[in-house]
Design brief:
A hairpin with a 2-residue loop joins strand 6 and strand 7. Helix 3 runs antiparallel to helix 4 and helix 12 runs parallel beside helix 14. The strands form three sheets. This protein has a six-stranded antiparallel β-sheet with strand order 4-3-8-1-2-5, covered by helices on one side. 35% of the residues are buried. Helices cover 37% and strands 20% of the residues. The longest helix has 17 residues. It contains 15 helices and 13 strands. The chain is an alpha/beta fold. The protein has three domains: 98 residues, Elongation Factor Tu (Ef-tu), domain 3; 91 residues, NADPH-cytochrome p450 Reductase, Chain A, domain 3, CATH 1.20.990; 146 residues, Rossmann fold. The structure holds flavin-adenine dinucleotide and NADP nicotinamide-adenine-dinucleotide phosphate. Flavin-adenine dinucleotide (FAD) binds next to strand 4, strand 5, strand 6 and helix 8.
């Protein structure tokens, strides 16, 4: 009997086997006058790429900018080494520096540079401060003429790891596409402008560029049954999965109501996808929209302030079985939103602070699985 191969299964794309997708759109979402650069990125997965569901994230394998790789190799007198250039571009972190590299440079430096760097390396606190806002070129600037062997360089640098982005589109919104909402990290330190590795990479991609990606499925951040109401809190890029949720619920005619809390700096320049949400309100698929523009008045107004202002209604939704979703900044925002939710459960749910905490973290989050976070 012939042993013909089984029909090929969909390849399992992952961080070690990414799909070569193609960039379709790279558009700035902020308007004139904004201090931010947030991108709407559209990537083509086509029919042979990975598939996804609302709530999943996309893993992106970034590359360093050619200019930064060149600046680095030129300072080392190694700019003719094409193989080193490619290795550095695809696998070594250059926009931030680790202690191992600083120590190796301190070892090879000569004269006053050697003394300065060795003093820093001998003091852990000083070394932490030194590496905090420097990249590899800043270090070489402090040790002019230092020589490193090409073969040893990759081993002295931290390895690039993929970055995750919450998917901002529903898979059947525009089939074969995946949309992202990316805040470009940018700052200046030691007289040179710096960019985040992956957000800078995405921000500079030209149409049709090839982008290595894979889907990171979510374990928990799923939509609820269609008849359930949802409350979504997503300031800044935290909006991404909720754009996907709204597209999905509208397309499939889910009966549950949708309430979105969005916040950013200024209404005029930073209302990400504001036109889409206005249209969704008009067509009845977005039932409530509460916005908090933090810098449009003297005092800061954040999403959690809007939640508290509308606490009685929010509690009614929760009592009625609504699911509560939070996405975005983990360090401050998600904690403050939790505290606001707690205060609402106390004030409008008639519980003591202890009962409210128990209800939120045990009953609501663990037993009923109605409190879902995608924070980073
Ligand atoms: C599940 C998940 C979902 C995510 N979804 C999104 C999303 O939808 N949209 C989005 O934009 N991001 C999202 N992120 C974050 C994203 O993965 C990246 O972490 C982010 O884009 C920054 O990566 P980068 O490579 O551009 O920056 P990096 O090269 O990693 O640099 C970022 C680092 O730069 C340093 N830095 C920043 N500013 C300064 C400064 N002024 N001085 C000195 N150092 C500084 C900080 O150490 C900071 O950690 C998500 C993360 C996770 C885990
Ligand atoms: N964990 C992290 O390291 C992390 C997480 C998310 C974003 N970021 C970085 O921040 C930059 C922009 O991110 P982003 O566009 O997603 O939005 P963002 O900076 O998180 O800001 C979105 C909105 O949230 C407000 N905000 C600030 N502190 C808050 C709090 N404690 N509670 C509620 N709202 C709060 C901001 O107000 P004000 O700015 O006026 O205070 C702004 O109006 C990017 O460079 C990104 O990389 C870092």
């Amino acid at each position: 009997m012939s042993t013909s191969p089984a029909p090929s299964a969909t390849p399992a794309f992952g961080r070690n086997n990414p799909f070569a997708s193609q960039l379709l759109e790279n558009r700035q979402l902020n308007q004139k006058g904004s201090s931010k650069d947030t991108r709407h990125i559209v990537i083509q997965l086509g029919s042979s790429g990975p598939t996804y569901q609302c709530g999943d994230s996309l893993g992106v394998l970034p590359r360093n900018p050619e200019t930064l790789v060149r600046e680095f190799t030129q300072k080392l007198g190694l700019h003719d080494d094409a193989a080193l250039h490619e290795t550095l571009a695809t696998s070594a972190i250059l926009n931030r520096v680790g202690k191992k590299f600083v120590k190796a440079v301190a070892e090879k430096a000569t004269g006053p540079a050697r003394d300065k760097l060795q003093t820093i390396c001998a003091d852990e606190k000083k070394l932490e401060e030194y590496v905090f806002d420097r990249d590899v070129v800043d270090v070489l600037h402090d040790a002019p003429g230092v020589q490193l062997e090409p073969a040893e360089i990759p081993g002295l640098l931290n390895k690039i790891a993929p970055r995750l982005y919450s998917i901002a589109s529903s898979p059947d919104h525009r089939p074969g596409e995946v949309h992202l909402t990316v805040a470009v990290v940018q700052y200046t330190s030691h007289g040179r402008s710096k960019q985040g590795l992956a957000s800078g990479y995405l921000a500079h991609l030209a149409d049709q560029a090839s982008v290595p990606v894979y889907v990171q499925p979510t374990r928990h951040f799923h939509l609820p049954p269609p008849d359930r109401d949802i409350i979504m809190v997503g300031p800044g890029t935290g909006i991404a999965p909720f754009r996907a949720f709204l597209q999905h619920r509208q397309r499939h005619g889910h009966a549950g109501k949708n309430w979105l809390f969005f916040g950013d700096q200024h209404a005029q320049s930073d209302f990400l996808y504001g036109d889409e949400f206005a249209a969704a309100q008009k067509n009845g698929s977005l039932h409530r929209l509460s916005t908090a523009f933090s810098r449009d008045q003297a005092e800061k107004i954040y999403v959690q302030h809007r939640m508290q202002e509308e606490g009685a209604e929010l509690w009614r939704w929760l009592e009625n079985g609504a699911y509560f979703y939070v996405c975005g900044d983990a360090k401050r925002m998600a904690k403050d939103v939790h505290a606001a939710l707690l205060a609402i459960v106390v004030k409008h749910g008639g519980k003591t602070p202890e009962q409210a905490e128990e209800w939120l973290t045990v009953t609501f989050a663990k037993t009923e699985k109605r409190y879902l976070k995608d924070v980073y």
